[in-house]
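Run log, item B.
One chain of 209 residues. Sequence copied directly from the ordering sheet:
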Amino acid sequence: MNSLTEQQLDSISMIVRFGATDASRALSSWLGREVRVSLDRLQQVSLEKATELMGAVDSEVCACCMQVSGGVNGRLLLGFDDTSGWMLCDALLPRETKSSEWGELEVSAAMETTNIVGCAFLNALSQIFPRSESIQGSAESTSWIPSPPVFVRDYAASIMQFALVDQACAFDQVFVAQTEFSIDGTPVGWRLLLVPDAESLDRLSRSLP
């Protein structure tokens, strides 16, 4: 499989929007403010273009990464620059001084946020994603099981190359569902990226009309 059709991209994008809605509710409750997680659509782009989704390729950014396994495998990343990440930490850590470095408390706050928004996102998808065929040929519900998040700080290009390496080895183009965030109507520099692996994408391409 080298590409998904426009109809398949639209179908998956519609499903992922349900996950974004549940993630919005969970993050709003977690932060005590109105948070909106929005998805334009699934993107099908070159590897070079995809490496820019987390920011300028030579900029240093942070990401909390979760492995996703089960019916659909891949990676889920919550990415942000330092300023945006520290803004998140300040909203969660009641103290007089603002965050200016990644200490243990800041990293813990970022990872717990990823755990909350990521699980809400994946739980919604597991309920409505197309049913997959088991080895025996019977239909079974798609499950999305996340690992505990891992915090990394690196160049944006390096993080995205790590996230996309499996797809890049199999396809001419790579496929990424990217969401954006706003708090109280103001956009913030966080990005939630869902990156299915090559086998899962091939299975999806065969299960969708």
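Observations after the first pass:
- Helices lie at 6-31, 47-50, 82-92, 104-128, 156-170, 198-207.
- The first strand starts at residue 35 and ends at 45.
Flagged for discussion on Thursday.
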